[in-house]
Amino acid sequence: MKVIAAMSGGVDSAVAAARAVEAGHEVIGVHLALSSNPQKYRSGARGCCTVEDSHDARRVADIIGIPFYIWDMASEFHEGVVDNFISEYSIGRTPNPCLRCNEKIKFAAVLNRARAMGYEKVVTGHYAKVVDSPTGPTLNRANDPEKDQSYVLAVLTQDQIAGAMFPLGDTHKVDVRAEAEARGFALAQKPDSHDICFVPSGDNAGWLRERLGSESGSILDEDGKKLGSHKGAYTYTIGQRKGLNLTVPANDGSPRYVLKIEPLSNTVVVGSHEKLAVSEISGSEIKWCGQVPGNELLRGFAQVRAHGQALPCSYKFDGENLTATLDQPLYGLAAGQALVIYDGDRVVGSATIDRTDQAIGSINGS
Questions:
Q1: Half-sphere CA count of 112, side-chain side, radius 13 A
Q2: How many Å apart are CA 290 and CA 134, to the nearest integer?
Q3: What digits encode the pLDDT tens for the residues 57-79?
Q4: I want to staple 114 with a disulfide (CB 3.0 to 4.6 A). Which of 4, 184, 205, 349 is the partner?
């Protein structure tokens, strides 16, 4: 089979490419250049889109004996990921850029280009599994629960899942590093990328202020009493506790958390932790990783963070929105994040959260 290995310059994609070669596939390695000026993004080993990373990927390609190319995806990445990130924060939502990158870049732009070139699949170092079923391939959790990345891949359609190959799905990370050492890859102990690759400083709030301005506003309690000031409501997220800089302490000395972000009035509302409890989640922009469920109430598990716990829930699709009712509350959910539904280890689908409701009252757009 002719496949393209997306090589980020990290240990996972390196081992995945090597395994694809050993499986007998015809492989070419591709590194995605996501910025026309790489210095604007992370440097060193912290990102996945730097000049250093491209060099690391090329060295691995040379070792395993495959052709290697760099594809310029800067325009697609900026439009589909960076602009979306800015736009979502500007309206008080909290996006997940890794999901958008998987959706718009790695398994849309890359897969489409690969198929146009006559290649059948894209190989990546994600920790997930593609499992064949009578109704087509399904996306499933990886064997390593600490590294499972099915959550950030839940934006894929079944057609994109069919075009994906995840050689590391049955392997634990410690064994991947050991295999990289045995293969002579210099990047075997390279740290994993973290934070947001296109924010060089790691200071999301400062990065957003440079692009959206620093309009001062008020931080209020639920009764409308001013407790402090801020320099842009969009720099906060639901559930945030640190960095609030409140000038009026709580009467009982308890901490306060961001409950609501109101971009039109440029205000942030804070309150007690229990007010963050969410029992119902509703979302749109739904992606099904298999068959579309009917209009009935189903049981499954809801996950709202990449490495968060999946909680039992009932869920229903009404033809436009996916709504999950949790058996027990979650805390600190924000519009713009992803709701992913599981049936055991199988990913059913995902939705971008529009509304969250509490057992008593409601927050964040409800």
A1: 7
A2: 11
A3: 999 999 999 999 999 988 999 99
A4: 4
**pLDDT band per the 50, 70, 90 thresholds, residue 291:** confident
Do 183 and 63 meet the contact criterion of CB atoms below 8 Å apart?
yes
Closest CA to 27 of 7, 9, 1, 58: 1
Q: Could you tell me if 245 and 228 are in contact, meaning their C-beta atoms sit under 8 angstroms apart?
A: yes
- What's the DSSP call for residue 307? T
**Of 48, 49, 197, 289, which residue is the catalytic one?**
197
CA dist 139 and 252 (Å) reads: 48
Which residues are within 8 A (CB) of 308 and not within 5 positions of it... i.e. 6 or more apart?
A: none
Q: Which two tokens mark 72?
A: 């310029």
Residue with tokens 């398994």: 107
Q: Which of 48, 49, 98, 101 is catalytic?
A: 101
| Tokens found for residue 155 | 């934006």
Q: pLDDT (tens digit, 9 = 90+) per residue, 3-40?
A: 999 999 999 999 999 999 999 999 999 999 887 655 54
The end-to-end CA distance of the chain, in Å, is: 49
Question: Quick check: helix, strand or coil at residue 25?
Answer: coil
Residue range 300-331, pLDDT digits in tens:
999 999 888 999 999 999 999 999 999 999 99
SS3 (DSSP) at 2: strand
Q: Does residue 361 have a pLDDT over 50?
A: no
Q: Based on the residue annotation, tell me whether 98 is a catalytic residue of this protein.
A: no
From the list 134, 122, 129, 143, the residue with the least C-alpha distance to 17 is: 122
Contact 281, 353 (CB under 8 A): yes
CA distance 323 to 47: 34
- Rounded to an integer, the average pLDDT of 126-138 is 94
Structural Rg of the chain based on CA atoms: 22
Residue 4: beta bridge partners?
A: 28, 122
Question: Is residue 197 among the annotated active site residues?
Answer: yes
